[in-house]
Amino acid sequence: MVQDSQWQETAKACLPLLYKVAHEVLHNPADAQDAVQQALMRTWEKRGRIQPESLRAYLTRATLNESRTMLRRQRYAIPVETVPERIAPERADLRPVMEAIAALPEQLKWPVWLKYLEDMSEKEAAAALGLTLAAFRSRLHRARKLLRHVLEEEET
User: Fold this and answer.
1) How many whole angstroms separate alpha carbon 66 and alpha carbon 78?
2) Which of 11, 54, 61, 149 is 20 to 30 A from residue 17's alpha carbon, by CA?
3) How far apart are CA 26 and CA 18, in angstroms?
4) What radius of gyration, in Å, describes the C-alpha atoms of the chain?
């Protein structure tokens, strides 16, 4: 079971990750902050039932779920064309890759996002998405295959 101090330390360390996850879903800084806040409150209430080694994945999953819930409630429709405006200048050379990732179907985008952009281990990212390791790897494989195809088409 997670101790209060351990939860606080882990939550504080994960804030940038949680905010990025929420912002990627909601595309709105204020909504992303609200989603992270809600997810933190929910996990705080359940901290006694969470295993310490899975806390980071649990926080990520809670933030992703809360963000998706907010998105459904607000019925946002974010066009993919807005993605390049959100890419930081230091990532300008990655613009085609980021656009291709953003255009992936939801179930394929998150494995790529968590593994490669957030540096989560496959096991941790699978837990965050509520998938078995085999299902996570399968989705990651399909996503990479699709990205390779899309990016090769852009080059020609």
Assistant:
1) 18
2) 149
3) 12
4) 16
